[in-house]
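INFO batch 0412 | record 1 of 1 | parsing
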Amino acid sequence: MSYYTLVTALPDLPTLAKCKQMPISRIALDRRLTMLTDEDQQQLKLAESLYYFGSKQPEMLSDQKLVYQWQYQLTQIESEEIRQCIQSRLEWQSLLAALRQRQQGDKGPEQFYGLGRWTMRIRQHWHEPAFGLETALPLLAELQPLMQKGAAGEVERQVNNWLWQNLLRIERSHHFSIETVICFVLRWGLAEKQIQNDADQALEAFESMAEVLIDAPVIREHIESAFEELS
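INFO prediction complete | emitting tokens
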């Protein structure tokens, strides 16, 4: 099929840091994606399910079986660049999982299962801060102390920025192709997730502020007085 009509119908996405509102809803996006062939739609669906695996994985699936599932599904991705892009995303997930597992201390390196080129090195350098990958993955060296501090939100933000730039690079190298479309949709997903996270954080901050105000003596006196009047 010709992707020109579809690609030109997709809106520009602002940078991830500036994306506070989606320029297109998922319903409207899906309408445009009906221009894809059945085969392309299957490839897109598989790419999304791998890239955003968290909410759709069976809860009882072990880490080892999950990795085997990822490996099999990756072989079904026809585009080599998209396959490598998704593998990079899953490698980062494996790296972060290793940091969390080591920090929790309930499992050793022999019980770690990850996908990609770094798995063996992670096991061999388990007790080094960034698994000895500071040179190959400088971002990991920056994330490791954040993980120790419990700054999960900042870790996710930095990883998502890296993923965004990787998708954008591939998207810009393919002007009118299935790669262009898949990368756009995956970036749309990152933006949607960030907006949702920002909303959750704003609500959490509001609730915390409300609790502090309610606990303040003056506010508590007013509340108690109001209840007394009502009774």
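INFO post-check: Confidence is low (pLDDT under 50) at residues 201-206.
INFO record closed
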